[in-house]
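job 3f2a | input accepted
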Amino acid sequence: MGDDFSTTSVARLVEGFRSRAFSPVDVAAAMLDRIERFNPRLNAFTSVDAEGALASARRSEERWQRGQPLGALDGVPVTVKELLAAQGWPLRRCSRATPENATADYDAPCVARLREQGAVLLGKTNSPEFGWKGVTDNLLYGTTRNPWDTTRTAGGSSGGAAVAAALGMGTLHLGTDGGGSIRIPAAFTGVFGLKPTYGRVPMYPPSNFGTLSHVGPMARTAEDAAYMLRALAQRDARDYRALPVENIDYVAQQREPISELRIAYSPTLGFARVDREIADIVSRAARVFEELGARVEEVDRIMDDPTDTFRTLWSSGLALTLRGFPREARRVMDPGLVALAEIGETTDHLVYMEAEYARGPLGAKMNAFHERYDLLLTPAEPVAALPANQQTAERRQRDWIDWTPFTFPFNLTGQPAASIPCGLTAAGLPVGLQVVGGHGRDDLVLRACAAFERVCPAAVIGEAKAAPAPFNLDYISSYMANNP
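job 3f2a | predicted structure (484 res):
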């Protein structure tokens, strides 16, 4: 373990604090140094509160010295996505249409839970404007770049959080996911990201995208994400749709075997087109679960294409978002955002209700599916990271929804779904494996991902040997240093 703490797990950080091998101040200072070193080239952060972070770390250090930590994350450095409210911090939502001095006067539930645990908040991470698309660039804060290849996008909308995780600029990271916004950038940058079951993590204020939108953890490993989810999945009276608190110890379950699991692997869900190289890498990754003793069966056709359903709901949510701004404000907004919102503005209310209704049969279909299979495996994305500032993977595509066929269906159903790195393309770009659980089975998703990590700790699958030290932070850091 080096003195930059960039790859140090939550468990090892907490043990170090307890034994006084190092302090929360040491860790916070090291993380701030990494942000200063890497962020100018990657643009992962929209703001950094170095003074506040160090003050918080000093308070944590005093608690550990007294043997009275606030919780299991006391002193652990975390980041907050720009779209989430953190009291006293800017809240521009990555839009030039918001007031320059916009500042949150409250904590979102997820931020409040982290503060209660004594976590050290470092700063806020970049997103597309209002989180509207699957790549991270905006007219206010600029483009977030992929550390594996800085000419590529980090994905979105939680792209800043993903890059911070990939380069160890913080240990835990808050993301949001309305159609893939945690899993897309996790896949593109080679980190772990979980969209929990809808309602597992309370939200406030309610999202304009309704029950499509989730809050969840991003980290370098599933084990670290389990620590974060355990802290986040607590009651907050502001969210009337939140699930009852079950107090599941996601961390303790990480070591349980998965040999009894029934797993389905779907290369396309029945309708998606997938890059051949991606398909081969994910297929090899699926076979790893057989080696772990699970029963894996290929079941290609899972559902009919729900793209139109999702686009109707998503564009309507964007229309609601823009309704809060004067018409002339659209001149300073992302043109793609405005165009999709205008589709939502012209959507007939019965068409909208039909789209909302269509979620019921789809959810019931998946409930029945998970009576036969504990988990579903798919590619997280059908393509590797797109060139930076490119909005579509193919010329004929309309927007980001057309190239994310594996993620948004599970926002429609509200199921837990994670992206875990499973290999590299020949060009050295990360590939993600999506692990989907039945409704409420976040524990099972995390357990399966942790088992996969134990046998593939470097995420090297099959012939992915050509890339130097794949998914190794030292390799990414070296790349960044040698490719100015």
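job 3f2a | Residues 349-372 form the longest helix (24 residues).
job 3f2a | closed
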